[in-house]
Every structure is written in C-alpha cells, then in structure tokens.
Amino acid sequence: SRLTNLGNLEMTWRSSVHFHPLLVRILHKSRLRYYGKPEKKADMPYQAYFEVADGSGMMSMVLWSSLCPEWYSSMKVGTVLLLEEYAVKESYPFKTQPTPGDPEMKRFATIEISLNVRNPPTKISIIPEEMVKPEWGLPEVKYRFVTRSELDDLPHNYSCDVIGLVTFLGRAERVRKREHGEDFWLYRWAHAVDGTSDQPFILELFATSQPDVFERIHPMTYLVCTQMRVVRDVTEHAANTIYLTTSNESQIFITGWHKGQPYTKDAKVQNFIQWTKSQSEVIQIKKTVIGGYYPFPRPPENFSKY
C-alpha cells in the first residue's frame, strides 16, 4: 500500500524529499563504467545504468560506487527489485539509450533513479521470480530477435537481438578508445548461423562486463547477443557489407548460461532450437574455424579501387 510508481514519481519528485518504495523489473543493463582518474581520490569509481519499468512506464536507474561490486552481477535483465530510500535526479542527457523491446512502452526521460551507498543509503531487495504476483502489473521483458534472412533488409544502426550456432571465432584484438589514449577496447569477430540463410551473422563482439562469457565463446556453442546494432558499409567501393556490433547495453549468453533467461520463451529462439535438433553435429563441426587474423570489413579485390 505504501508503494509508488514511476509515472507518479515523475510528477511529484520536485515537491518530495522522501520517496515511497518502488517495485520495478530490469529491462536493460549497461556495461560497468569505470570513471576513476589519477588526480581524483574516489574509493570505488564505478557506475552502471539500468532501464527499469513498472506498469506506468520505463525509467533509467543508476548504480553508484561500492554498490556496483556488491549488486551489479545479481541485477540481471528480468530481475524484480524493491527499492527503498533512493534519490531522484535530473537525467544525464548524453547517456546511450537502448531500444525497448516493447515500442508502446512510455519512457520517462526527464529524471533517473540514483542508488547510492549514502545520501541516502539505498536499500535494495531482489524479489525471487516465483514470488512475483501478476497483480503488481510488472511488464515482461520483450526482445527484437531477427533471423539471418531478415538482416539484409534492416537499416543502418537498427537495434536487434540474435541467436545462432557459432561457426567461427577470431582471436581477441585491441583497438584504442581514443587516438592517443592509453585505454583499449577488447573485441573479437564471430560468425553464427541460424539455418535461415546461407550467410552467417558476422558479429563484432566487444568485451562487455561479462568476462566469464566473453572468454568462453567457442565454435558449436549457442550464442545469444542482445541489443546489437546493424552496421552497413555503404561507401562507394565497398561491397555491401553488413555486420552487427555490440552496444553499451548488449548482453551475451552462451551454452550453459541460457537457463532461466527471459528470451528462452521467444518464438524465434524456439524455432532456432528446433532447427539445431535437425542438424548433424559431425557435419557442423567440420565447418567450424577458430583463431587467426580476420581482416574485416574486407578491402577491395584490386589496388586501384582501394
């Protein structure tokens, strides 16, 4: 009876000092961000964004500082949270925005929920899924899965989710975050097939905040990648190259990590599982490759075009 909702929070936040508890479900989760600098003395300079929702709509939630190592791993997409003693602030205008699986969902973009270890000290409770009641009206997690046969028709920067059987995995490579900086992004290329096309998904997988999964991707695993962005190379001399790259909110799952994930109920995921049951493992293994240098997007065939 003491609960509030996100819609009410947006209307009343300026006139309130203490906020009633919130009951929300996590729909999106960003990678963990480290913002430490040598000249600044911060104990735990970490931050993570989540998009949370209830029956009234969706809002950003920020996890700060020492709450990140304590809570980040247990806050998964689909997790239901009871939040007490949180702060509300105007939203940061330059953060990335994930594409909601439900286009009808209302987004409250003017404010964000701030979870801190003090001022005030937030109380976070995870509600087990079996205790979640339908009358709470919490939305289900929805996805935008596409098949390989649908990919060629999608526009540049389109956000989607994919599932496939890994047939190629390149070695881990590094690229500088800034031209003269000392920080690097770690990434690897992968191919995955789903039986709907002769062509594989070409995936540029940057290391997210899931090192245990990133390091264990291998051929013949079932790979799910969420919140991927379509990249089309439409320059004059390039072959019409299309691939998918991870975004700030991408999550990656492989065989062994799928159990209990919300996407297992999705129709396209179910269709993919049925397709894999019809495949010969021996034949598929013969088609797989691992490691080596993978130049992509490929340069033109002759030097004059280059």
TrEMBL record:
InterPro entries: NA-bd_OB-fold (IPR012340), RADX (IPR040893). GO terms for molecular function: single-stranded DNA binding. It comes from the Eukaryota. Pfam families: RADX. This is RADX protein. The lineage of its organism: Eukaryota, Metazoa, Chordata, Craniata, Vertebrata. The gene is Radx_1.
